[in-house]
Amino acid sequence: MSEQQDVTRAPDARRAFRGPASACLVLEAIAVPLVLPVMARVEGGITPVKLALVLVLTVGMIVGCVVILRPWGLAFAVGLQVLMLLGFVLSPSLGLMGLIFCLVWALMLWMRREVIRRQAAWPVD
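Now predict its structure.
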């Protein structure tokens, strides 16, 4: 081995975004099932369709933690957010949670875009 095998490359904002995105999906996978007691008490009960939607979203977010590493992983995660927003049709509490997480994702995507934009302006050595 040579003395200096240090491969220095500029940090990549696209790759750095994977950690926070995965962490947010983990938080969502924990928070989404917590909407079930609210559905049961406030919305008059849990229907099979509501339960299926919550289960699909929860499993999807767990899967999303892994596929966020893929090139299409970000689109998958955003699709889950859209599905949560569409939850307003079946459950206002799920839709409200979806709205909150959509705002979080919008902020994270904005920060990612800003970092990429500023990184493009860095001088090349």
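The mean pLDDT is 88.
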